Amino acid sequence: MGSRTEGTVCPISFVKDVLFPYALRVLPETLEAQWDNSDFAKYKDAYPPEYSTSKDELAAHTRDLMDKDVKIAYLKSLQGYLWKEGYAAGHLKAPLFPDVADKLHTWHQNGFKIMIYSSGSVPAQKLLFKHTNADPSDLSPIISDWFDTVNAGLKTEAKSYQTIAESHPEVPVGEWLFLSDNAKEVDAAIAAGMQSMVVQRPGNPELPHGGKRERTFKPTFEDGWMDKSNMEDTK
Ligand SMILES: CSCCC(=O)C(=O)COP(=O)(O)O
Predict the structure, then answer these.
(1) Does 4 sit in the ligand 1 pocket, CB within 6 Å?
(2) Last residue of a domain, which of 58, 89, 120?
(3) What is d(CA 209, CA 8) in angstroms, rounded to the nearest whole number?
(4) What ipTM did this prediction achieve?
């Protein structure tokens, strides 16, 4: 069982209106404090050289990438670093959709492996699932594995899903279920041999073809995720 984060387990607005602005707010003070710190070098040095020569260049490029929501590994890595203190201090908490925590616990108790595949970096994923609005807040112990664009590849490419499946040979590829609000990612997962569905959530943009496609899944919080009556089969 695999899933992406924004628009699937939590609202897109949490990422766009809370996480991104938080990262931009703490960026200048972080650059000021950490620029020459050897622990920070791995974030700074991952940027292309033309953007890592000065704090101003790096900040401007970071702002530009976030404005355009570019999901590039060096930005995602820095974001995870910038969010760390915010989560630790309680300023950031992931607002999961109301069905998510219960459903993940149920699946876990029933022996399913739950894994996350996100454009957000693995450290950022772990922070998000560790600090949620659920009770208990930390869902990370029930997540079996974590994938991002560094250890798996781009989410719209079938080979990324093959890489993920191959890293767990104990689970035949046809037994994986990948849930995403992004139809292109669902198509890539299906091309790799996984089962996959588009999840529709409040606040998500209109799907291609007005959401009319096979295997579109619109969970209602009362009925639960796996109620087939919520599935639009428009074949
Ligand atoms: C899990 S880190 C915060 C979300 C994020 O930065 C992101 O890019 C979300 O990507 P996803 O593929 O999970 O929608």
Answers:
(1) yes
(2) 89
(3) 19
(4) 0.97
Looking at residue 18, the DSSP 8-state letter turns out to be I
Cβ of 71 closer than 6 Å to ligand 1, yes or no, is yes
The verdict on the CB of residue 77 being under 6 Å from ligand 1 is: no
pLDDT at 225: 45
Q: Is residue 235 part of a domain?
A: no
**For ligand 1, is residue 15 a contact (CB within 6 Å)?**
yes
Phi, psi (deg, nearest 5) at residue 117: -130, 110
DSSP for 32-60, please give it: HHHTT-GGGHHHHTTS-GGGSSSHHHHHH
Q: Are 107 and 151 contained in the same domain?
A: yes
| Calpha distance 52→44 (Å, rounded) | 6
Same domain, 100 and 201: yes
Q: In angstroms, what is the span from residue 110 Cα to ligand 1's centroid?
A: 27
Note down the domain range covering 114. Answer: 2-11+94-230
- Is any atom of ligand 1 closer than 6 Å to the C-beta of 149? no
Total-model pTM: 0.90
- Measured distance CA(41)–CA(143) in Å, rounded: 29
Tell me: the pLDDT tens digits for 25-51?
999 999 999 999 999 999 999 999 999
- pLDDT surpassing 80 at residue 220: no
How many domains would you assign to the chain? 2
